[in-house]
Description:
The chain is of the alpha+beta class. It has one domain: Peptide methionine sulfoxide reductase (Metal Binding Protein, Guanine Nucleotide Exchange Factor, Chain A, Beta Complex). The chain contains two helices and nine strands, in the order ααβββββββββ. The chain has helices at residues 13-19, 22-30, and strands spanning 48-52, 58-61, 65-66, 74-75, 84-89, 96-101, 107-112, 122-125, 130-134. The longest helix is centred in the first third of the chain and has 9 residues, at 22-30. It is globular and about 40 Å long. 32% of the residues are buried. The active site is at 124 (nucleophile).
Amino acid sequence: MADTTIAKVHKTDAEWKEQLTPEQYRITRQQGTERAFTGPYWDSFETGLYSCVCCDAPLFRSDTKFDAGCGWPSYFEPVSPEAVTEYRDSSHGMVRTEIRCGNCDAHLGHVFPDGPPPTGLRYCINGHSMVFTPEK
Length: 136
């Protein structure tokens, strides 16, 4: 059986700044967020795949996307358990679960326990942290 392990992506801040737009860098490398209803994909429901803007690792499939009414793209599960990693986030006077890309550690958003079946989860993701590839 072939080894399908993907090497983790590590770059310097200078390399990330060269690759990303200022907004993408602020969100993915500095744990920023976009204002609700302003980023890409919050109101898009095309069929395809959402991948990490930093390393192109697959993150979410469009068939797991739903309209949570929160102003950010929302999904009920990632493409695989390894696609994202979870971290405790106690910033801004609250405790949340931060979601990062499992491949390059890019900040994506947060996950909340108020999503639809079958998982009951809502992965609330910054649109600027992803790129979308339509299904052909």
